[in-house]
Design brief:
It contains 3 helices and 31 strands. The protein is mostly beta strands. β27 and β28 form a beta hairpin. The N terminus is likely disordered.
Length: about 375
């Protein structure tokens, strides 16, 4: 479909190359089942990286980056159509109001219990039905020097799925010449509430639709993880990764770990765990490096940085072939992996977990970035990791 609306073109040029301009363009992508228009925004770094983003759910449709040989490919999974995304909430979308799970039928704040729109087990997952991944956000053009950027804005009214407080949320997506996709979140409320925001993009650095990520290598800079029960809820125990299949502190091939006999991996059918990451900022105020992903075949690597206290690693354990990707190829277990930077699941019920409480006058802010580099193929050395 032809590009129709120019949101913002010709951002500040990077100093070294006046020919490489960042740009944001948009087009009508389709219509939701209720007739509302959805638009796709193309964020172009001017240096070979392009990100395709929908204002519906903040869905990342594609992240196109070069490999060591300069060959571009989309490394983010998406579904075949807008209708498929409507049927599969949260796939590659913004997650809120509360990422991951909340149990107990609701949440208690200042002695008041708020019943949430839970399932039959009394659990609300990823904000519940009609969560942020199913909302049509307002796209706002923004200028960031040297970056192509667009902000998505959403007002979640008090009582939305039972959550107290009117929550104003803004997520700014930006791409720069350094081949970094950065997400900056901001939220405010007019009444005490709980907030846990993330993005549920799935990555396969060999290219979307190329099959399993078993041969990818991974590193997660975390010494401890939250132990989960068979239903996926945290028990409250925070355990060392040492001696377990979840010890990913050094670059490790993914496949053998997904098939390990470790009870935590067996019950989850792979990775579906929250890691307590190291979040000490490096010199120069850079976001802390928390994880790396590397595909030896293409040489593509991804560095994940965040100021969040945790990262939920999910290896697409629930993909059973019924979902269709962009080329109508079936998505199967392990075809992608998600790095959901966030607070731990069910934090309000565990005093030893960091708080997710937000009060009027406070501003929730957090940032996460994904930097894509072309490393040497078939090497165990990833620059910066």
């Amino acid at each position: 479909m032809r590009l129709r609306r120019l949101l913002w073109l010709g951002a500040a040029l990077a100093a070294a190359s006046p020919a490489a301009a960042q740009s944001v363009t948009s087009r009508e992508f389709g219509r939701l089942s209720d007739g509302r228009k959805v638009h796709e925004y193309l964020l172009d770094s001017g240096t070979g990286m392009r990100v395709r983003l929908l204002d519906y759910g903040g869905i990342i449709r594609a992240v196109e980056v070069p490999d060591q040989r300069g060959h571009n490919a989309n490394v983010a999974l998406s579904l075949a159509s807008l209708a498929d995304h409507e049927k599969r909430p949260n796939f590659s979308a913004i997650i809120g109001r509360y990422a991951n799970r909340l149990s107990g039928g609701g949440v208690a704040i200042d002695g008041v219990f708020y019943k949430l729109a839970t399932n039959e087990r009394g659990v609300i997952s990823h904000g519940g039905a009609g969560g942020f991944g199913q909302k049509l956000w307002q796209a706002v053009p923004v200028r960031i020097s040297g970056r192509a950027a667009v902000m998505l804005r959403l007002t979640s009214p008090a009582g939305d799925n039972g959550f107290p407080g009117t929550l104003l949320t803004e997520v700014t997506f930006s791409v720069g010449r350094d081949h970094t996709l950065r997400l900056d979140y901001r939220a405010t409320t007019d009444a005490p509430t709980v907030v846990n925001l993330t993005h549920h993009a799935f990555f396969n650095l060999a290219g979307a639709g190329t099959g399993s990520i078993d041969r990818h290598w991974i590193r997660v800079l975390a010494d401890r993880f939250m132990v989960r029960d068979p239903s996926g809820l945290p028990t409250g125990e925070i355990r060392t990764v040492a001696g377990s299949a979840l010890d990913l502190r050094h670059l490790t091939e993914i496949g053998p770990r997904l098939r390990a006999s470790d009870p935590q991996v067996v019950t989850a059918r792979g990775f579906d765990h929250n890691f307590e990451v190291r979040t000490q900022r490096s010199k120069g105020g850079k976001l802390p490096l928390v994880a790396c992903l590397y595909d030896p075949g293409s040489g593509r690597a991804m560095l994940v940085r965040t100021d969040q206290p945790g990262i939920q690693l999910y290896s697409a354990n629930g993909f059973d072939g019924t979902l269709k990707g962009d080329a109508s190829l079936s998505l199967r277990q392990g075809d992608g992996i998600a790095f959901e930077t966030q607070h731990p699941a069910d934090s309000p019920r565990h005093r030893n977990f960091p708080t997710t409480l937000l009060r009027p006058g406070q501003v929730f802010t957090t940032s996460t970035s994904f930097t894509f580099i072309a490393a040497k193929p078939h090497s165990r050395i990833v620059p910066g990791c």
